[in-house]
Write a structure and sequence with these properties.
This protein is of the alpha+beta class. The chain folds into 2 domains: about 5-165, Alpha-Beta Plaits, CATH 3.30.70; about 180-330, Alpha-Beta Plaits (2-Layer Sandwich). Helices cover about 25% and strands about 30% of the residues. The strands form 6 sheets. A 5-stranded antiparallel beta sheet has the order 3-5-1-8-9, with helices on one face. The chain has a 4-stranded antiparallel beta sheet with strand order 13-16-10-17, with helices on one face. Strand 14 and strand 15 form a beta hairpin. Helix 4 (about 180-185) crosses helix 7 and helix 5 (about 215-235) runs antiparallel to helix 6 (about 240-250). The radius of gyration is 19 Å and the shape is globular.
Amino acid sequence: MTLTVHHLVFTVTAATPIMLAAQSGPAVRGAIANSLWERFCANKEAITCAGCIVYQHCPVAALVAPMRSEDEKGSEQRPRPYVVRPPLDSGRRYQPGETFQFGLALFGKAEIFFPYLVMAVHELERDGIGIKLPELGSRRGRFALQAIEAYNPLTATRQTLYPQPGRTVNFPGLPIDSTTVADYAARLPTDQITFTFHTPLRLIDQDRLVKNIALRPLIQRLMRRLDDLSRAYGDGPLTIDFRGLLEIAEQVTVTTDQTRWIDVVSVSSRQQRRTPVGGLIGSATFAGPLEPLRELIVWGSLIHVGRNAVKGDGWYTLEGMPSFPGFDTSVFSR
């Protein structure tokens, strides 16, 4: 498989008070998507991206509403080529001068849209983010972009992209590929692995929400998601034994379960639509024949898994993974 992932971390400083909800992934994703639409959409009269005459050549459509080609299997829409990672200390009010971070991952060929995402975040300096505040005239709080870094969450390697001399932006140069994933996975335990779910894990298994953590439905959804992303933004489908790996995942048991279900609703102000984005958060330890599943598990930590992944849901890390300074995942283990 030749899918690559670019992880980016944006450091911003509050210019006015900013209020973010406890699970702020939908707000961050919505702000970026709206900024892309406002800044780059060339045909705002179109009802949908799919019905727009310039759809095939539009960066907004490629990021916000990518459609499958005729030879691709699955639903009409491709998985979106990115996910957001919300601030891990959200659910609070940031005062002017306070700094916080959020992340974004770009998948495969979608790396060409990096400049559009940078400009979209720049637009948010003016448009704001989070909950509308009365003291701001019912406007969202604004921030100033301080830095953009490429980051490899498997090695903690960093690369400064912005600011550069002349306040220019470098292109990200720390792609995470299958070799990087395999090298990290080979160092994981073969019989027991602990996951920490930082944002809600929302899985559907046999038409029902999974409210008790189990590895088999996670692996099943993860394989499908990774296959979809590889088909859309890599060099083709996965060449793995789907059925055999599922049978192995079925043998894995939960030895420690410290997860809990939370209900969260995402509200789209542009589409006037409410979407449930709640799920399981917390930590769980799995034990069993994990060796053949390790690479898949590492991929899941990079691309998220389950419903609403683009909004930040389904983000987990594994015990022993490095933490990005200032973007410390340990705050969610309490």
